[in-house]
Amino acid sequence: MKLSRAELKSLMKNKLMRAGLKEEHAEITAEILTWSDERGYHSHGAVRVEYYSERISKGGITIEPNFQFKETGPCSAIFEGDNGSGYVAAKLAMDKAIEMAKKNGIAVVGIRNISHSGSIGYYTEMAAKKNLAAISFCQSDPMAVPVGGSEPYYGTNPISFAAPTADGRTVVFDMATTVQAWGKILDKRSRGESIPNTWAVDAKGNPVTDPNLVNALLPMAGAKGYGLMMMVDVFSGILLGVPFGKHVSSMYHDCSKGRELGQMHIVIDPARFVGIEEFKKNMSQCCDELNSITPADGYDKVYYPGERAELRKEKAYASGGIEIVDEIYEYLKSDDIHFNRYDHKNRFAD
Ligand code: NAI
């Protein structure tokens, strides 16, 4: 089913409001979910609405959160999320970080006690669109083994960086620190296909090719990815005083409780370094030079990070809209909330 941007966003917004989210929060959440779907990050778009709706309706996302922004220094602050919508908290915290970085050159804003905030590239892109460079990272449910381990300890702990160019392009690097997202395992399971032995491990920590035997995901790039996912947890968990490592709540364990997740935004004003015009000019040159590298066999082009997501967006609109799975469309159109589909499921909610 292909939907226009407006239709998809309004279906998601209405469903979130039906579940209990207030309009202002449903508007922001639906906007960011649409941002993901239109860029082809379907793992973080409409597919999540049913789960969020169950959590909202069961009280696991605070409807009237007491958001508090506490400046702890000229360049540092804590945004207290009160387990409200992670999308809204992360967006409002980035608004504040942008303001602080414009004023003082750099902003480090820790966001405490929030629910899932989706594709974190949305937040770094916000800063880049205001001529700033940004980094964001956050915790997620423990589902990846540390190198050499057999039990999950860290989440897919994503990291995003973004920077502006002189010509309207925005470089947005946005990735999970596991080889693959959990959604890709579910996809392979549903198709009855095997997975490469580099993606995941079984209950003993051995690599698996049968997606049904997967007990945990593997960090990307071995010990390097493991180190990155740990440091994401150090800076967005331990540093902010929220649960860390295996103590991070599972998305599905108890939908009536707040998730208490942490996220960190770091925003830098290039004006305090090389100067904004030179920074953007050189960013443009860098992207052009990458694009002009002769592709290796089997590749059509060298892309800069985020370029393919923009192309997917353009292609979607040129071909009649954003492709949404029929089942999800039917759910969004319906009056259902599906009260007991996710609650108390295993950590991967298969
Ligand atoms: P991915 O593997 O599709 O892409 C990762 C990055 O690599 C992107 O910046 C992309 O632009 C870049 N890239 C990919 N192929 C490229 C190529 N050929 N040339 C140049 N650049 C290329 O992303 P992944 O890891 O599957 O993450 C998807 C989304 O899931 C992200 O938006 C992430 O924020 C989100 N996520 C959110 C989590 C949360 O708990 N909030 C947890 C994990 C992921």
Report on this model:
This is Ureidoglycolate dehydrogenase. Pfam families: Ldh_2 (PF02615). The chain has 350 residues and is an alpha+beta fold. Among the domains are: 66-274, Malate/L-lactate/L-sulpholactate dehydrogenase, NADPH binding domain (Ribosomal Protein S8, Chain: A, domain 1); 276-306, no CATH class. The protein is 36% helix and 15% strand. It is built from ten helices and eleven strands. The strands form three sheets. A seven-stranded mixed sheet has the order 2-3-4-10-5-6-7, sandwiched between helices. A two-stranded antiparallel ribbon has the order 1-11. A hairpin with a 2-residue loop joins strand 2 (68-73) and strand 3. Helix 1 (5-19) packs parallel to helix 3 (49-57) and helix 4 (86-104) packs parallel to helix 5 (121-128). The longest helix is centred in the N-terminal third of the chain and has 19 residues, at 86-104. It is globular and about 55 Å long. The protein starts with a strand and ends in a 17-residue tail after the last helix. The model has no long low-confidence stretch (mean pLDDT 95). The site of 1,4-dihydronicotinamide adenine dinucleotide has 24 residues, from strand 7 and helix 9.
